[in-house]
């Protein structure tokens, strides 16, 4: 029960000693994300009170209207990571290109790059439904002391050093992994401290929830259509329950706790689905595997895919191991 009272700050310090990241750089980086998360959380919670909702007028590289909170969250995460001189590069869903950070005093000595989806599920903001932030951390592959290049960002997901998300829900949680399991921390808003509330999170091997935008059914590949029919069939422990929030972070979070599978397949409209490999699918896939779950594009392990572009999209199936494997079986059979 001692764990229950452990703060995220204490947890980071304790685990820094246990792992090889003894320079403390990764710990400081997670600390900076913790800080930015609190700032964004404060703003998200005010969304209904102040005039912050609605499109900011810009269109991001994906061709979508940016909501004001997307812009705000993007700025806060970039500002925090830049000001604290903690990373050498940042890529964000909201930025066309990656950002190279020139640390004047330390001459580019930082070794980590961060990729973020600053506000995930942004269409939910003005209807008071949970949104999130997703982050993914890599060690740079180009030499320390030089400006970062695209190569530092286009790494396979299996090279991630850490990944996590913040869910701004009924309570705000920060959930992350450094490759040694997944731990979840809940924010006590009264004092602004995250506490370890969900140690060693695990996907149940089987689940009863499937999460997919069924409105797109007609456009899905046959394997996915067949899987959806399988979920709905009355047989054994089926039919399953359908739950879809439309915010990957929240759908993933629920499925990890209760057991379920999230699907964003390709369709006849989007040949690679919608979700972005680098700052949505890879971090969630890393978390899933660290929590005894699985993530696939329907055929291949997400973490093994070699990225070719910063904003590329990929079909995504993620969640309880046996459910993801069942989807893969349906995909194979429909080939
Ligand atoms: P974002 O708000 O960062 O653009 O991400 C939204 C993503 C994901 O979070 C969600 O699961 C999915 O888009 C919902 O898409 P549909 O509305 O097409 O179902
Ligand atoms: Mn997103
Ligand atoms: Mn987003």
TrEMBL record:
InterPro entries: FBPase_C_dom (IPR044015), FBPase_class-1 (IPR000146), FBPase_N (IPR033391), FBPtase (IPR028343), Fructose_bisphosphatase_AS (IPR020548)
Primary location: cytoplasm
Places the protein is found: Cytoplasm
Enzyme type, top EC level: hydrolase
Pathway: Carbohydrate biosynthesis; Calvin cycle
Keyword Ligase attached: no
EC number in record: 3.1.3.11
Positions bound to Mg(2+) 1: 93, 117, 119
CDD domains for the chain: FBPase (cd00354)
Fructose-1-6-bisphosphatase class I N-terminal domain segment(s): 7-199
Binding site for substrate: 120-123, 213, 244, 262-264, 274
GO molecular function: fructose 1,6-bisphosphate 1-phosphatase activity; magnesium ion binding
Catalytically driven reaction(s): beta-D-fructose 1,6-bisphosphate + H2O = beta-D-fructose 6-phosphate + phosphate
GO CC terms: cytosol
Cofactor: binding details: Binds 2 magnesium ions per subunit.
Residues annotated to bind Mg(2+) 2: 117, 120, 280
Cofactor field: Mg(2+)
Keyword Hydrolase found: yes
UniProt record similarity statement: Belongs to the FBPase class 1 family.
Subunit details: Homotetramer.
Protein name: Fructose-1,6-bisphosphatase class 1
Organism field: Yeosuana aromativorans
Organism taxonomic ancestry: Bacteria, Pseudomonadati, Bacteroidota, Flavobacteriia, Flavobacteriales
Encoding gene, per UniProt annotation: fbp
């Amino acid at each position: 029960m001692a764990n229950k009272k452990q703060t995220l700050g204490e947890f980071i310090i304790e685990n820094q000693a246990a792992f090889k990241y003894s320079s403390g750089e990764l710990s400081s980086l997670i600390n900076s994300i913790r800080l930015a998360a609190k700032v964004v959380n404060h703003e998200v919670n005010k969304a209904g009170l102040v005039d912050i909702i609605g499109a900011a007028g810009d269109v991001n590289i994906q061709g979508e209207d940016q909501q004001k909170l997307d812009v705000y969250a993007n700025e806060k995460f970039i500002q925090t990571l830049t000001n604290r001189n903690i990373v050498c590069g940042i890529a964000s869903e909201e930025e066309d290109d990656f950002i190279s950070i020139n640390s004047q005093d330390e001459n580019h000595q930082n070794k980590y790059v961060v990729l973020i989806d600053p506000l995930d599920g942004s269409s939910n903001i003005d209807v008071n439904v949970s949104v999130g932030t997703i982050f993914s951390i890599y060690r740079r592959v180009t030499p320390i002391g030089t400006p970062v290049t695209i190569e530092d960002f286009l790494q396979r997901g299996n090279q991630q050093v850490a990944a996590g998300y913040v869910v701004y829900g009924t309570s705000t949680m920060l959930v992350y992994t450094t490759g040694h399991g997944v731990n979840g921390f809940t924010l006590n808003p009264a004092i602004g401290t995250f506490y370890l509330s969900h140690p060693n999170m695990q996907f149940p091997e089987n689940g009863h929830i499937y999460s997919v935008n069924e409105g797109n059914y007609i456009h899905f590949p046959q394997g996915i259509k067949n899987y959806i029919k399988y979920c709905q069939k009355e047989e054994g422990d089926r039919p399953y329950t359908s739950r879809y929030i439309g915010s990957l972070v929240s759908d993933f979070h629920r499925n990890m706790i209760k057991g379920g599978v999230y699907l964003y397949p390709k369709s006849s409209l989007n040949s690679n689905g919608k979700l972005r490999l680098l700052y949505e699918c890879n971090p969630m896939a890393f978390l899933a595997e660290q929590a005894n779950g699985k993530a696939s594009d329907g055929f291949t392990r997400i973490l093994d895919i070699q990225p070719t572009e910063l904003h590329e999209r990929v079909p995504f199936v993620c969640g309880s191991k046996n459910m993801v494997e069942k989807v893969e079986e349906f995909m194979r059979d429909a080939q």
